[in-house]
Amino acid sequence: MKKMKEGFHKKVDTAKEWQGRYDEFISKAKKSYKSVAGVLDEEWYPGERQASIVQKYLTKESSVLEIGCGAGRVSSISRPIAKNFIAQI
After folding, report:
1. Containing domain of residue 32, as a range?
2. How many domains does the chain have?
3. pTM for this predicted structure
4. Which string of DSSP letters, residue by residue, matches 4-21?
5. Beta strands in the chain (DSSP E)
6. Does a structural domain hold residue 72?
7. Domain for residue 40, yes or no?
């Protein structure tokens, strides 16, 4: 097993150590009527880089079906470019 650099990731084993770590995200999710996973996804990984890759292939006449879009990061950014854009989880 590869050893992690000291301080890079702190190992968390008990529920007590996890307590409170996600309270901010839970609060944001409740206020925005989103899932906690959706809020974490937006906070940690907004999707602009992936959307820029997809957008190279889109035109105003494009029809897109995205299957497995997750929280919809790429879809929400790329949708305005295509004529039709359907995203399904």
Report:
1. 15-88
2. 1
3. 0.49
4. PPTTTS----SHHHHTTT
5. 63-67, 84-88
6. yes
7. yes
